[in-house]
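Archive entry. Fields below.
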Amino acid sequence: MTDFDLKDFTPYLLTIAAETSSAVFQAYYKDRYGMLRTEWRVFFHLGRYGPMTAKEICDRARIHKTKVSRAVAALAAKRYLTRKELPEDRRQEILRLTKSGELVFKELYRDAADFNVQMMADFTVQEQMILRKCLIKIADLDAPEPAPTDTG
Amino acid sequence: MTDFDLKDFTPYLLTIAAETSSAVFQAYYKDRYGMLRTEWRVFFHLGRYGPMTAKEICDRARIHKTKVSRAVAALAAKRYLTRKELPEDRRQEILRLTKSGELVFKELYRDAADFNVQMMADFTVQEQMILRKCLIKIADLDAPEPAPTDTG
DNA sequence: GAATATTGGTTGATTTTGTAACTAACAACA
DNA sequence: TGTTGTTAGTTACAAAATCAACCAATATTC
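PREDICTED_STRUCTURE:
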């Protein structure tokens, strides 16, 4: 075990791989749309799965409610989404992409897909499948249970 | 391509996998030794590859010099390393783990290795190999690196 | 050998994230 | 009804990351 190296430490390797692979796309949507990563994630959820409340985004995306709250505020300020109070429970608001939000989403969605295809082209189909399987397992994304969000 | 999902976006998947897999170990060395992640990385480099300058750590570990500078200061404050000015270039300092630094390193090193074995036990040998290969490729870590100084 | 550029490293200001406390609406129950 | 507890979401404050400016030592240029 004296050969154990940072390259052999999977959490490290994952972190570097995540940073490297995210950098380009992140810079792209930041420069072009002034979006931060959490904003992009929230935005993606609304675009891909339709209108929902902040709470639903928290559960689905496993993002803490304070981050979602700030991302929603930023996206609303950019006129990418609107909030509408739910009559049957006035604590909640339905979030929905605006027309221009939809437009931007279509572009970002397509670009993300393209980017992904390009980056995966380095690998065989079998490698892609195994990589995906391992990552989903490590990320614990195959478990349907939403993570507890609150402090404590 | 209408089925493209966040789970299919590899940079996202990598980020979540990295966060999930890092969380436990990170909490461990933070609680036990008060180390931040950059500190742990710098520390690991010095322990694993022997004394070197901050610049060398920057290059090897691909960490920005401001982060390395602060990590080194923190590690020095904890008496885990010493700095010695290089006579032939007085801008540079050789960083070297202290006795107690070495001791802590041995423990952290062993625990990291154990942690890694445990986490990889979910996968077959073939899966482990492919995962590693893909991650190294994505992280661009197969690019030529400076050779290890075999002091460690 | 003086002027200028570059390099290793540090520091300060700004941005972003994380944690805790908070408000307002609803629910449960006496 | 009033009390207590819970939930959705925001805000305030602390910790941390990022970026630009900076200093001192060395290299380079004329």
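CURATOR_NOTE: The two ends of chain A are 38 Å apart (CA to CA).
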